[in-house]
Structures are given as structure tokens and as C-alpha cells.
UniProtKB/TrEMBL annotation, chain A:
Species per Swiss-Prot/TrEMBL record: Amycolatopsis endophytica
MF (Gene Ontology): dioxygenase activity
SUPFAM superfamilies documented for this protein: Ferritin-like (SSF47240)
GO biological process entries: phenylacetate catabolic process
Protein name according to UniProt: Benzoyl-CoA 2,3-dioxygenase component B
Keyword field: Dioxygenase, Oxidoreductase
Automatic annotation (TrEMBL), chain B:
EC number: 4.1.2.44
Keywords, ordered alphabetically: Lyase
Region (Disordered) residue spans: 519-538
Name of the protein described by the UniProt record: Benzoyl-CoA-dihydrodiol lyase
InterPro entries xref list: Benz-CoA_dihydrodiol_lyase, ClpP/crotonase-like_dom_sf, Enoyl-CoA_hydra/iso
GO terms for MF: lyase activity
Example GO BP: fatty acid beta-oxidation
Pfam families linked to this entry: ECH_1
Enzyme category, top tier: lyase
Gene3D superfamilies: 2-enoyl-CoA Hydratase, Chain A, domain 1
Length: 472, 538
């Protein structure tokens, strides 16, 4: 397994594709279909070149190369992390056995399903962000958008490779299906609900890359633990790329908050809408929405599917190998907070193995907290008495034990009417969305930036922040 | 143990919505998660238990009798993205053996009823599969004449019982796939061993569904196809339905009685004596059939330990023949419905796992349609002498064969009950035909082979007591197997396969540790732990 990536091949790869003619032919058959999809469903804005990062090696040091590329000519390819020849299964009933280099027949359907669902989210976000380039607040942001988009495309390639290499004819059919479903399509929507919502403005994009891509990070983290080694290694490398998407989200929200803080100080009012800024309470409402939609992606708090995947060794926990327990979880218990019809919360003890989605969600929530802390620090330093808070995990949920209950951001269970009255204080209203949209004017001039967002602290790959990241 | 009632009214359905839009009817499944018949499980994702299927049975029945104007029925789900997840697994895992088997039997009968409506009532069923469709969910679809599947590139049809639960699709899934839809056996094998099922083009190519329909056009195309089916229906125009009023039933501890049917329960002996009364007025055949059907279902579900049913009749044989002629020679839709309903009720008796003994005594009326009850029994005893409590009486028991006994009420094997009794004996059948419409004495009945024994009044009571006590001493399991074996001679049909082979296999599999043991697939399902199988093939 070479760590360098072969860029002379038609499909860049580090999986010695040239040695497997059948697989190569299959993937070369899929490649033009992918390019058609990109042309049709990818970014609307055409550019002459974007300063993009391209993986050149999967090793620890210096894995990426930077340079201007026309997005359509980006070299999407297949990159897996290095193989640990001694890797053993860390959990479930196969614990201690060598990791699988092939799909066990018994788990073929389940593994295929997991890969298809993961794969389906990757092109979805490209489709959701299709129009954003037309309203980019700066060339720097535009570049980041393209970077995220090409890498989502790359992640699609990663899943398609697995489907082609390990799942035969059916895998190839599923790989085609990934291009056939489209985000928000009334006939063939994407599999998961959150990936059919539109990302209509840049604040939403920052929130999406912060919250929703972070869900992706945690999902990939559990698949990285998989006993199926090719999946594990694929996800490990994807996690490396995913980190940048979250960087875009974290710094994006940072910059919006920074700019809003500046405007609040400058005009000595919280009501900065009239001055072209985004009010803090509106940012909080965006946060509330994107956070809760992303919580839905973790699925139901109690899940026998997740338990089955765990027992079978298909999908582990976040940082499985660092956990100090028996990695079987059949004997352990954990608590689940459940809303009651009488408006109180009750705690129920359950088998830990049935609460794996909750376990992963807990890790995710702790991670999200760090974002809120960051943004509050900006406000504290500016001397502004306002703080962002993650709403209660029961708030605004469509999936799991909280769906069907009316729970406020502070975790109080109320009746439907009370909740509806609170809605406009808690979630973006049509007016909010219209206001944010009214701010979305493209700024394509080198070194300039839109009024509602602060410039980045630093550029990409050591370049200045006013570098000409995109040739239009 | 909960007493199960089979009384339902569309106004009170918890799990289905029935909408009549002549010539179509929409039957939408919308299972109430918290509406399980027994405690201990939630009916998630349109999964079903006996209670859900009882409503479906009620709806299918009412459509036939109350809505002659309906020519096609669209069976679909009111839930988004899920058609039906099949039988509820926690319910199955938590149910005792006989409950599981009885549940499978009843759901089979309901499916057969849907097919019977399509075939004999011109009420053609169309399954509009608008989301994922697994196990018993797909079996409901299989019972329909046509299956349309939404083409959203993710909805599938599946029979995942073998890979996920270690059991078989319990309501005829395997048989309907190969025999009814003629799916190639290798493909059927692939299909039934895949937990995730088959979608889209492949499902059509393999004949698992008939047509794919884009999501946005789904409702419109479904309605159009249903109208096409309605157009070829034989259902007459311009008729009025009749109402199926609630049954007049009195339930006591040891007695269930209706105007035309009475059951006396002897728990010590494990015997139920069922007396069917002959005509007492208009509309007798339908009223009696409804009562008998209800009684069979109640006894089967609620009284598993009463293993022997003694069938008697009371009334005037000639009145039975008159009532029967009105319906048999009737050319209207209602006569047709009544005949087929009685046929289905007799079939229910045929597949009931109870020893069935007919007692033919003076004052009984085993003539024509009611003689079918005696012929459905495992044994027939006819009293050759005066009534037991009146030895001076001139009255003697008789039997009368009529047209009704020669093909009007076929069994699941496609044969009449006399044909089944004298399988392959053409000369004997011709002889029997010549003896139609005549009162036959006990002696003649013995000669014609229509009864097992004809004890005289001196022996009668002892003879019958010994028969019943002897029966009660035998292994109920062995009896169930033996009776099911003897009752269905001759050719196999889809129906006999489903009830015979499949339920026998299912019966066996249900008791095996691989399915029902503490580490078996049914018990382990949903716990996140894998089943442990005994790997020896038996």
C-alpha cells in the first residue's frame, strides 16, 4: 500500500488500482457519470480557477498540495489511510479477531446499507450549497466553499470505491443511485431528512459546516472503528479532510459574531440590523435550528440497529479503543432522560448497548459546547452582555423520544400552544431568513469583504487573507 | 389472558382508515403504536398484531357486503415512507407458541379473503406500496392482484424473516412469491435471504412487484390503475349494500350463544359442543354463517385447551334445503357473497386445529349446506334409533345430500368435501350423486360411507363418551398434525401449501431454540445481540 498517491492514473489513487483491471474499468465507467452530476448539480458559479487543496499523500506529514484549479478539473480520487497489518477488532462479539479485509457474507447487506447512507450525505451537501457561490461575502469564503464542495465530492468517491470494490454488481448499482437521488427532489430525495433542507445563505452555510458537518465527523469516527478494515481506513482519511469543513464553520461563525460585536460597539445598540449586521439573537436562532436538525441525524436515542452494528463489529463508538470497559456493553446500564406526558422528565435505566446513538450524541454535544464558548469569548472580550447557548437536546426534535413533545430551549415541557407562541423567539422566522438573505450580496473584489462578516484572521496555506483565491 | 373479541366497526378502527369513493375504496393502514392488543410492545412503523389484522378482516368483509358499488380496493399506508413493517417482532417474541401459530393462521385467512374478493366478488385489490415494505407487509401486498411500488430509489420490498428472525414469512410469503407471482426459485432464494430486500427495476424484473411509479405521480397513477381494474370488474352496477349489524351474542362462563349457534363449553372434558340451528326466518344462511365464523374465531383464539369440538344441528332438513336453494340458485351479487362467505367459513373450520366430531341425532338437520359441517369433521357418528330421552318416539336421524355438496363449497385443495372423502373413487361419487335430495337413514348413511359409525340408542351415550375421552387422552400436537394431514387429500394448491407445508414448518421452527430459545433469533431481535444457532441441520 503506497502512501503517495498516483496522479498519473486516470483516477488518482493509492489503492494500486492499476493492478485491478476490473475494478478500474468499473470506476472509470462511473467517473463520467460523476462528472455529469458535478456539472449539473455542483456549484452554479463558474470560475477560472480556485486555490484548492489536493491530497498527494496519506502519510502524517505534508499530505496536501495547494494550487489554482478549475473545479471541474479537480482530480477526485481514492485515498485510504495506511494499513496497520496487525489491526484487531476492538469491540463486539468478534473482539480480538483480526480486522476483516473483505466483507463477511453475513454482514454484507448491513455494511452496504451503512456505506450507502454515509455516501448519500456527501453529494447532498454539494447540492444544498449549489447556489451559495453567487452570494459569497469574499474570495476567501468562495474558495472555502469550493474546497468543501470538492472534498464532499471526494468523500463520495471514497464511498463509491468501497461499493465498487467490495459489493459487486449491487454495489455498482448503489453507486449509481447515489448520483440519481438529489437533495430536495420531490421524486428521489436524499435518504436523510436534514440533507433535503436548503442552505439558503452564508450564515446557514457556516452553521451547517459547524453543526451538520460535525455530525459527519462523529459518524465517520464510529465507522473508522469498523472491523471492516477498508471502511475504517477510508473514514480515517476522510476525517482528515473533514477537519477543514469544520474549520470553515467555526471560523465562519466567529467572524459573524466578531462583526456583529463591532457593530454593537460602534453604534451602541444590540439592534444592528439597520447597520448591516446580524443581531446576536438572530444568530442564536440560527444556531438553535441547525443544532437541533443535526441532533436528529444521530437517530433515535434507543436503537437496536446501532446495537446490532456494534455487536457485529460494523460500527463502533467514538474513540472505541480508548474506552475502558468490556467493549461488549451487554451487561452495562446507562440512563436515558425521557419526557413524560405530565410535563416532567423521568430517568430510565437501560442496557448501554441500546443507547449507542445517545453515547455518540453526548460526545457531539460536548464538542459543540466548545463552539458556544468560543463565540461567547468574543462577546466577553468586546464587553457585550450576551451569551450563546446550545438549546436543550429535547428542543425542536423530529426524531427520537423527544419528537412529539413540546420542549423549550431550556428543557421545559410545555403544551403545543405555548410552544408555538415561543417559536419565533427560538427559531428563525420567515422575516429572519428574508433579512439575512437581504444581506447576501456577492463581494468578488480582491481584499474586500461583505458588511456583515469580519475578515479572516489569516489566509489559507500561509497566503495573505486578501490573496486572489479565486479567478473569476 | 385477554379475551379477544372480533367485533369491529369502521367508525372505531384504530389502525385503518376506510374511505369509499365508488367505484374505488381506499384502505389505508395507519397503525396506532399504542394500540397493541396485549401489553408489552409498541406497534411501530405500521407493524401489526392480531388486533390490526382483525380490523383488516372486518374491512374486507364489509367491503364485500356493505359496498357492492366498490369494484377496486387500494390498499396503502397513511404513513410517510413506510408501507408496513410486517408482524410486530416483540409481539411474536413475547407470545406463547399457540398464539403465534393462531395469529399466522388468522392472518393467512385474511389474505386468502382478499384474494377471494378479487377472484369471486369482482372487488379487485391493488397494493400501493408507498414506502418500505417488509415481511408481513409485503405479504399483504402479495395478497393483492397488483403491486405498485413507489420509485424513490430507496423503498424496497423484503421478506427478511429467514436472515433476521430465523423463521419463515408466516402468512404464505414464500409460496405466494413462487406460485402466485411465479418468481424464479433461485431469485426467490436470493430475495428471501436478503435482510434488506429488493428495490426498483430489479423488483419489477423479478416480478416481485408489477410496476414502479415516480413519487410525485404516485397517487395519481395508483388511482388510474385502480380505475382500470375497476373497469374490468364483474361487480353489478346500481345495487345497494346490506349492513352487517353487530352480532347478537351472549357470553357466559360455559356458554356462548347466538340466535342460530350455541356453544357449550365443558372445561373438565376439554370439549365444546356447538349446535347450529336450522332456518327460523329470512336471511338465515348469512346470519348463521356470521355467528359460526365469529364463534370459530373466538374459540380458536380464547380457548386453546378445549381441543375437541362436537358439532350438532337442530331443525328441519327440508327448511335447510329450501333456504339453500334460494341462495344457490340466486343470480344476484348478495347470493354470491353469502355462498362465498359460507365457503370461507367452512375453510376456516377445515384448518382449525381441533378434533371435529359430528353427532347426527334425531331432530338434527344435516342437509345440504349443513351436511358440509359434518363432512368437514374428522369423524361422524349417527344415532340409529329413537332420541335418547324419548325411546317411544318415531323420530329418526337422517342425512340429505344436495347440489350444495358437489362443488359449491370447495376446500382449499379445490375439491368438494365428498370428493375429498372419496378421493379418486369416481364410481362411488356417481352413486352418491344419484342419492341426492333424499332423506338417508343411518343404515344408508353407513352403506354410502357418509358416517364413521351408527351406534344404536343402547350404545350411543357410552360410545360417544369413549370417543371423546379417548380423544382427550392423545397428544394434542400429534392430533393437530394427523388431522391436518387427513383433511387435505389429493392435489396441492397455493392454499394447501400455505396452510399445510408452511404452517407445519413454521410450527416446527417456532418451537426450535434457534428461533424461540433464550438465545434464539426471535428473542434476541432488538436487543443488539446476535442469535446463537445450533448449527446442526435437522
Amino acid at each position: 500500500m503506497p502512501t503517495r498517491i498516483d496522479y498519473d492514473a486516470k483516477i488518482p489513487n493509492n489503492v494500486e488500482l492499476s493492478d485491478n483491471r476490473r475494478l478500474q474499468r468499473a470506476l472509470e465507467g462511473w467517473q463520467p457519470k460523476f462528472m455529469n452530476w458535478w456539472a449539473e448539480m455542483g456549484p452554479t458559479l463558474e470560475t477560472q480557477g480556485v486555490y484548492l487543496r489536493t491530497a498527494v499523500s496519506v502519510g502524517r506529514e505534508g499530505w496536501a498540495h495547494f494550487g489554482h484549479v478549475v473545479p471541474h478539473d479537480y482530480r477526485w480520487g481514492i485515498f485510504l489511510s495506511e494499513r496497520d497489518p496487525d489491526r484487531r477488532i476492538a469491540f463486539g462479539e468478534h473482539q480480538g479477531e483480526p480486522a476483516w479485509q473483505q466483507v463477511p457474507g453475513e454482514y454484507r447487506a448491513d455494511l452496504q446499507r451503512l456505506i450507502v447512507i454515509q455516501g448519500d450525505t456527501e453529494p447532498a451537501s454539494v447540492e444544498q450549497q449549489k447556489l451559495l457561490g453567487l452570494t459569497a461575502p469574499s474570495l476567501y469564503d468562495l474558495r472555502n466553499l469550493f474546497q468543501v464542495n470538492v472534498e464532499e465530492g471526494r468523500h463520495l468517491w471514497a464511498m463509491v470505491y468501497l461499493l465498487h470494490a467490495y459489493f459487486g454488481k449491487e454495489g455498482r448499482e448503489e453507486a449509481e443511485g447515489l448520483l440519481f437521488r438529489n437533495s430536495g427532489s420531490p421524486d428521489t430525495p436524499r435518504i436523510l431528512g436534514a440533507f433535503n433542507e436548503e442552505t439558503a445563505d452564508w450564515l446557514a452555510f457556516y452553521m451547517f459546516t459547524y453543526f451538520t458537518d460535525r455530525d459527519g465527523k462523529y459518524q465517520l469516527g464510529t465507522l473508522k472503528e469498523s472491523a471492516f478494515d477498508p471502511l475504517s481506513r477510508t473514514c480515517e482519511f476522510m476525517l482528515k479532510e473533514e477537519a477543514h469543513h469544520m474549520f470553515v464553520g467555526t471560523t465562519g461563525v466567529d467572524r459573524v459574531v466578531t462583526r456583529s460585536a463591532e457593530l454593537i460597539r460602534e453604534h451602541d445598540t444590540m439592534d444592528i440590523a439597520a447597520h448591516g449586521g446580524i443581531p446576536l439573537d438572530l444568530i442564536q436562532r440560527y444556531l438553535n435550528f441547525h443544532y437541533t436538525v443535526s441532533l436528529d441525524l444521530f437517530g433515535s436515542e434507543t436503537s437496536t440497529n446501532a446495537a446490532n452494528y456494534y455487536t457485529s463489529g460494523l460500527k463502533g463508538r467514538w474513540m472505541e479503543t480508548r474506552r475502558k470497559d468490556d467493549h461488549q456493553l451487554t451487561e452495562d446500564a446507562a440512563m436515558l432522560d425521557k419526557p413524560q406526558p405530565d410535563g416532567t422528565w423521568a430517568s430510565e435505566e437501560m442496557q448501554r448497548i441500546l443507547l449507542l446513538n445517545l453515547d455518540l450524541r453526548g460526545e457531539y454535544i460536548a464538542d459543540c459546547e466548545s463552539g458556544a464558548k468560543r463565540w461567547n469569548k468574543i462577546l466577553t472580550e468586546a464587553g457585550i452582555d450576551f451569551s450563546f447557548r446550545l438549546p436543550h437536546p429535547g428542543f425542536n426534535r423530529k426524531v427520537g423520544i423527544n419528537s412529539g413533545h413540546h420542549i423549550t430551549p431550556d428543557g421545559t415541557i410545555v403544551d403545543a400552544a405555548t410552544w408555538e407562541r415561543g417559536r419565533k423567539h427560538w427559531l428563525p422566522s420567515d422575516e429572519d431568513l428574508a433579512f439575512v438573505r437581504s444581506l447576501m450580496h456577492p463581494v468578488y473584489e480582491r481584499g474586500k469583504i461583505a458588511s456583515w462578516v469580519a475578515p479572516p484572521r489569516q489566509g489559507i496555506n500561509g497566503k495573505p487573507s486578501d490573496y486572489e483565491y479565486v479567478y473569476l | 389472558m385477554t379475551m379477544v373479541s372480533f367485533d369491529r366497526r369502521p367508525e372505531d378502527y384504530r389502525h385503518w382508515r376506510l374511505r369509499i369513493e365508488p367505484p374505488l375504496a381506499w384502505l389505508e393502514m395507519d397503525v396506532d403504536e399504542n394500540g397493541g392488543l396485549v401489553e408489552g410492545y409498541e406497534l411501530k412503523l405500521n407493524s401489526y398484531d392480531l388486533g390490526v389484522d382483525i380490523e383488516l378482516y372486518d374491512a374486507v368483509q364489509r367491503l364485500r357486503f356493505e359496498h357492492p358499488e366498490v369494484r377496486a380496493v387500494i390498499l396503502t399506508s397513511a404513513k410517510d415512507k413506510v408501507f408496513c413493517a410486517g408482524a410486530n417482532i416483540r409481539m411474536l417474541a413475547g407470545s406463547p407458541h399457540e398464539w403465534k401459530v393462531n395469529f399466522c393462521k388468522f392472518t393467512n385467512e385474511t389474505r386468502n379473503g382478499i384474494e377471494d374478493a378479487t377472484e369471486n366478488s369482482g372487488q379487485i385489490y391493488l397494493a400501493a406500496v408507498n414506502g418500505s415494505c417488509a415481511g408481513g407487509g409485503y405479504e399483504i401486498a402479495l395478497a393483492c392482484e397488483k403491486i405498485l411500488l413507489v420509485d424513490d430509489n430507496s423503498s424496497t420490498v423484503a421478506l427478511p424473516e429467514v436472515p433476521l428472525l430465523g423463521v419463515l414469512p408466516g402468512t404464505g410469503g414464500l409460496t405466494r412469491v413462487t406460485d402466485k407471482r411465479r418468481v424464479r426459485k433461485d431469485r426467490a432464494d436470493v430475495f428471501a435471504t436478503r435482510p434488506d430486500g429488493v428495490k426498483g427495476r430489479t423488483a419489477v424484473d423479478w416480478r416481485l412487484v408489477d410496476e414502479l411509479v415516480p413519487r410525485q405521480e404516485f397517487r395519481q397513477v395508483v388511482e388510474q390503475r385502480a380505475r382500470e381494474l375497476a373497469a374490468r370488474s364483474s361487480r353489478p352496477e346500481g345495487t345497494q349494500g346490506i349492513r352487517l349489524d353487530p352480532l347478537d351474542r351472549t357470553v357466559e362462563d360455559d356458554r356462548i350463544s347466538y340466535p342460530n349457534v350455541i356453544a357449550e363449553l365443558d372445561r373438565t372434558a376439554g370439549v365444546v359442543t356447538i349446535t347450529v340451528r336450522g332456518p327460523q326466518g329470512d336471511g338465515w344462511l348469512l346470519a348463521m354463517t356470521r355467528e359460526l365464523d365469529d364463534l370459530i374465531l373466538r374459540l380458536r383464539t380464547n380457548e386453546p385447551e378445549l381441543g375437541t369440538w362436537v358439532l350438532r344441528t337442530e331443525g328441519d332438513p327440508d327448511a335447510v334445503l329450501t333456504a339453500e336453494r334460494e341462495v344457490l340458485t340466486g343470480t344476484d351479487w348478495l347470493s354470491n357473497e353469502i355462498l362465498h362467505y359460507y365457503k370461507r367459513t367452512l375453510k376456516r373450520l377445515d384448518v382449525t386445529s381441533r378434533s371435529l366430531i359430528a353427532l347426527i341425532e334425531p331432530g338434527s338437520c344435516f342437509a345440504g349446506v349443513l351436511l358440509e359441517l359434518a363432512l368437514a369433521c374428522d369423524r361422524q357418528y349417527m344415532l340409529d334409533g329413537p332420541p335418547i330421552d324419548d325411546e317411544d318416539s318415531e323420530e329418526r336421524a337422517t342425512l340429505v345430500m344436495s347440489e350444495a355438496n358437489f362443488g359449491a363449497f370447495p376446500m382449499g385443495n379445490g375439491l368438494s368435501r365428498v370428493e375429498s372423502r372419496f378421493y379418486g373413487e369416481h364410481d362411488h361419487l356417481d352413486w352418491l350423486k344419484r342419492e341426492r335430495d333424499r332423506h338417508l337413514s343411518a343404515e344408508e348413511a353407513v352403506e354410502l360411507g357418509l358416517v364413521t359409525e351408527a351406534p344404536d340408542d343402547i350404545d350411543w351415550e357410552d360410545e360417544i363418551r369413549i370417543v371423546l375421552e379417548g380423544r382427550a387422552a392423545l397428544s394434542p400436537d400429534a392430533l393437530t398434525g394427523m388431522e391436518a394431514n387427513h383433511r387435505f387429500v389429493g392435489p396441492e394448491t397455493i392454499e394447501t401449501k400455505i396452510f399445510g407445508r408452511l404452517t407445519a414448518w413454521q410450527n416446527w421452527i417456532f418451537t426450535r431454540p434457534n428461533a424461540s430459545g433464550p438465545d434464539g433469533a426471535l428473542r434476541r431481535y432488538g436487543t443488539g445481540q446476535k442469535a446463537t444457532y445450533d448449527r446442526k441441520r435437522v
